[in-house]
Amino acid sequence: MFPLQFRVRIVRLLCVAALSCCLAGDNTIGLSVRPSQRMQKLPSHTLWTWQRSENLSAIDPTTTAIAYLDQTVRIGSSVKRVPRTQGFAYPTKAVLIRVVRIEVLRDAKLDRAVLDEVVEAILRSAGARSAALQIDFDATRSQQEFYRRLLVLLRRRMPPALPLSMTALVSWCSYDDWLGGLPVDEAVPMFFRMGPDRTRAADLRVTEPVCGGSVGVSTREPWPADLQGKRVYVFADGGWRQDMPLLEGRLK
Asked: Which domains does the chain possess?
């Protein structure tokens, strides 16, 4: 009989090997996971609508949701809310996801008082009803701990049944390991406008489980190869008035 310490080591090695096999893949997405219970009620396709006047009345609300920019929260010497000023048309039964963008200015002080103020600003909706809340924050490495604390406090103060989503840089879902344990129902890796990551896009694979159930793409950039079983968010680079025809045949 092998010593207990040796047996424990073997079990750990086997677990690591099994996990590696599960994460292997031939495309830039790689990992696939089952969506959270809160997310399962939402359609599998979502159109992002930013600060533009749009007409999305023609979408099928049974298959396609709308994630609309509700407001931008700017953190500087003070916390400022910038509500959406452009309206958008949508079907009566459309599923709406409220998006709040966070921007941090150079003179920002990310302390506990600011944290409370930002969470309060996020919870103050400036727009229509919503079936989920999504946070869009391109946090730098030095801002990630603040972002983590923000999400924890936000989840604590949100209605329990309301899904909490976040957008994510592909690097966060691949090699920049900090999303583990966040109280979100999904993190949406954005495979567009990737900046420095674009040069290594072919080598990037989603390995963070919270990123495995969804993907963000744009109308005018290449899409990852395998989107089967994933919730697909689409951003219109030229606005939906121009780019809606570009979706034909791409969302199935």
From this structure: 28-247 (3.20.20)
